[in-house]
Amino acid sequence: MNDVAARPTRLLDHIRRCNNRDLARFRPFVVADQRIGWVRDDFIERLREFGDVFEFAADSVNLASRFDTVAARTVAMSGVVRALVQNRTFAKLRNENYAVVTEWGAPPLMLLDRSAVAPFGVKAFGVHVNGHTRRGGQTLLWIGRRALDKAVEPGKLDNMVAGGQPAGLSLTENLVKEAGEEAGIPRELALRAKPAGAITYCMEGERGLKPDTMFVYDLEIPEDFVPRNVDGEFSELHLMTFDEVVEVVRTSYDFKFNVSLVLIDFLIRVGHITPENEPDYLALLTGLHASL
Q: Which of 58, 89, 116 is the last residue of a domain?
């Protein structure tokens, strides 16, 4: 992962970190005459053995036009992904399909295993929930710590609830599922979560490009309810004050890389980060909605 600096000195460093990429090293990935992703040059070389699936142009990688239905494209790409797992290009299948779309709300062109989303640079979506509660006269945030066996950012701090958006579920259904798995939150409480917008970023990582959209929700947790992790993805859940969250984000990369953006957005919306106390206020507002 490309850090802008060894340690952040400004909140804006997190936004810059999540939008650090060099598209000169990528070529468009085209399906049905539509650019739906970006493929890095080193990964293109891995794809050349699948000449029956891809067509290689000077300025793009194209899924062969003979795959002209959602089902046919999904089957063809599934075969490629399985082969890339077998030859150890990918560590493993995630067995969770994402819908590949040109934009949110558009009909899917195909389904793709989560393991291949970044290598093919396709748009991904997810839900993040800010769990807040009142204790001792102040509002605090429930924060998770990622388990040490997580493939991405093990041991880092995280939102109380967060997860990628799989095909076949609505955002609300996914929120309810993730809330139950990650924080033991019952359905009736999870459904009280209020949609609070979306955050976008486009980041180059070790495995490829992440043009991601995070749908953000706020959920007030009753004082007498203690979230508990169910699926083993967190080692703990604990409370932090707003000041503690700002201090950790401002001075470290202790939060998972994209979670810092969600927290900055939340603290702006509740008035804890203001134009008076944050010189980068306008740059933060703009940077939370980067072009994909």
A: 116
The string of DSSP letters for 89-114 reads: SSS-----EEEE-SSTTSPPSEEEEG
**Same domain membership, residue 98 and residue 210:** no
Run of H or E residues at 38: strand 34-40
Number of domains in the chain: 2
Please tell me the pTM assigned to this model: 0.95
d(CA 184, CA 170): 20
- Domain extent, residue 57, equals 23-116
Please say whether the dihedral angle defined by the alpha carbons of residues 111, 173, 141 and 184, taken in this order, is positive or negative. Answer: negative
- Own/partner contacts of 284-291, CB < 8 Å, gap of 24 or more, are 284/11, 284/12, 284/15, 287/12, 287/15, 287/16, 287/19, 288/15, 288/199, 288/200, 288/261, 288/264, 289/198, 289/199, 289/200, 290/15, 290/18, 290/19, 290/200, 290/201, 290/202, 291/200, 291/202
Residues 159 and 90 in one domain: no
Per DSSP, the residues of 151-220 read SSSTT-EEESEEEE--TT--HHHHHHHHHHHHH---HHHHTT-EEEEEEEEEEEETTEEEEEEEEEEEEE
Question: In whole angstroms, what is the distance from residue 28 CA to residue 1 CA?
Answer: 21
pLDDT (average), residues 101-108 = 97
pLDDT-based confidence at 6, cuts 50/70/90?
Answer: confident
Q: Quick one: 134 and 254 in the same domain?
A: yes
Can you tell me the distance from the alpha carbon of 235 to that of 152, in angstroms, rounded to the nearest whole number? Answer: 14
Instruction: Tell me the C-alpha distance between 232 and 77, whole Å.
Output: 30
The domain spanning residue 194 has which CATH number? 3.90.79.10
